[in-house]
Write a structure and sequence with these properties.
With about 270 residues, the protein is α/β, with parallel strands linked by helices. The chain has eleven helices and ten strands. The strands form two sheets. The protein has a seven-stranded mixed beta sheet. α2 packs parallel to α4. The protein is globular and about 55 Å long. Bound molecules: S-adenosylmethionine.
């Protein structure tokens, strides 16, 4: 069964749902048509049950009246779970094989994009990885659709639970303690900048040496997924590398002008 959704398919879920999708796009800026149709519908129904919202028409009305309702829905829809050095073996491969490759072939400052950066864990993991490889002339752009996550990313303060996956020597070297929180050192923060970007509708930045887009497109419809991969590939400079999540292998990489150079890393033809 296809996981993509189109307007005809949406009508399967009823006119109220179509109306709700229009209102949700208006108030949250998120176009639900681009996400996996049945999955997002089921998640919304669960959410409404939990919050005692009787139907989609009522839900749409609440979005119109209450900005808090809009913020809660955005947070729920975007699933902003993240971690530092998620799948550590892939970050080790990045440090061992990809960073030297990029450093050798870069003509000027290395440009990295963490697309769907949640609360900054991925962008700071990248900055620490480059710093550990003694490659300092790096600019890292972290983007996300969710403003709350971006605010947290800019603050760069994490609880002990949130930094649990940071190896102890790196925690000591790149974070300082502020009361109960761990704050990313300025030398790392200076490498990173955050801004809002919607992978489904914003213009993409170009000439990237490395794009990290992990655990984001799994939630998109098949059509949106393909569109996003094509646009990410075009955002790479020739020879640039796309780093995907552990469940997001690209099986037809050559269709996007990419070549798999090791699991989850794809290089644009130099
Ligand atoms: C599960 S988190 C993954 C975070 C990080 N990349 C990682 O692998 O740990 C997914 C992130 O994608 C963001 N996201 C969802 N839809 C998006 C979109 N259309 N454009 C940009 N970011 C989006 C969410 O807000 C969330 O922060």
């Amino acid at each position: 069964m296809s996981d993509s959704v189109n307007t005809t398919e949406l009508h399967q879920f009823g006119a109220d749902y179509s109306y709700f999708c229009t209102k949700a796009a208006e108030f949250t800026g998120i176009n639900l048509h681009n996400y996996k149709g049945r999955q997002i519908y089921r998640r919304l129904v669960n959410y409404m049950n939990r919050r005692n919202i009787p139907d989609f028409a009522t839900f749409a009305m609440r979005l119109q009246r209450d900005p808090g309702e809009v913020a809660r829905l955005v947070e729920y829809l975007t699933i902003n779970v993240s971690d530092f050095f998620r799948n550590p073996e892939h970050w080790e491969a990045l440090a061992r094989e990809i960073v030297p490759l990029l450093a050798d072939s870069a003509k000027w400052r290395i440009r990295v994009w963490s697309a769907g950066s949640a609360a900054g864990q991925e962008a700071y993991s990248a900055a620490i990885t480059f710093a550990e490889c003694s490659v300092d002339d790096v600019f890292i752009l972290g983007t996300d659709i969710d403003e709350t996550s971006l605010g947290k990313a800019r603050a760069a303060k994490y609880t002990s639970a949130e930094v649990k996956s940071v190896p102890k020597p790196l925690l000591r070297k790149y974070f300082r303690k502020e009361a109960d929180l761990h704050v990313v050192q300025d030398s790392i923060r200076r490498m990173v900048s955050f801004r809002r970007h919607d992978l489904l509708s914003s213009e993409y930045p170009g000439s990237m040496d490395l794009i990290i887009c992990r655990n984001v497109i799994i939630y998109f419809s098949e059509h949106s997924k393909q569109d996003v991969i094509a646009r990410l590939a075009s955002s790479l400079r020739p020879g640039g590398v796309l780093f995907m999540g552990a469940t997001e292998a690209i099986f037809n990489a050559q269709d996007y002008g990419l070549k798999q150079i090791r699991p989850f890393f794809y290089r644009r033809s130099p």
